[in-house]
Amino acid sequence: MERNMARFNVIEDAVSLEEIVSLILASLLGIEKDTSKSFGNTSQALSFNSKINLLTDLKSIEKDSAAKFVHFAQIRNQFAHNVYAINFVNCLADNESCKNFLKKNYKEFFDEHQQEEVQLEQMYHALFKDLMSILQRSYQLKLK
After folding, report:
1. How far is the first Cα of the chain from the last one, in angstroms, to the nearest whole number?
2. C-beta of residue 84 within 8 angstroms of C-beta of residue 76
3. Do residues 135 and 24 touch, judged by C-beta distance below 8 A?
4. To the nearest 5 percent, what fractions of the chain are helix, strand and coil?
5. Is-contact 98 75, C-beta < 8 A?
6. Is 99 exposed, middle or buried (0-12, 13-18, 19+ CB in 10 A)?
7. One-letter-per-residue 3-state SS of 9-54
8. pLDDT of the chain along its 144 residues, tens only?
9. Can you give the pTM of this predicted structure?
């Protein structure tokens, strides 16, 4: 059985991204991440959206940036919970707002001569790269 690479890659990205978010938040709040219930890996931990809200409340990320995290979470949730989300086209089939968000923010990847799957995947990777840059800036602000 061939591995679903889109799903695999998004879930891998999501796990890494959430770990970085947790590390930044724990550091900002002076909490030991390894012993924290809020930032741990149990069902008692804060949700990804809650963590993003905290980063926003702490003014560690801008509200506009938080929207990127929300759309990322929507993509991640579809791949994690929807058996039919086997690629980006299927993943975003019922989420026009997320698809439009990607197209609006990552226009440079729109090419009518290219398959929609390729375009959406490139837009997703650009989104992920943006999120990592946002977190890097957030962490650098904490250090100042």
Report:
1. 50
2. no
3. yes
4. 70, 0, 30
5. yes
6. buried
7. HHHHHHHHHHHHHHHHHHHHHCCCHHHCCCCCCCCCCCCHHHHHHH
8. 345 799 999 999 999 999 999 999 999 999 999 999 999 888 999 999 999 999 999 999 988 899 999 999 999 999 999 999 999 999 999 999 999 999 999 999 988 889 999 999 999 999 999 999 999 988 776 655
9. 0.92
- Give the separation between CA 72 and CA 66, rounded to whole angstroms: 10
Query: How many residues can be counted in the chain?
Result: 144
Closest C-alpha to 4, from 114, 82, 103, 68 = 82
Alpha carbon distance 141, 83 (integer Å): 40
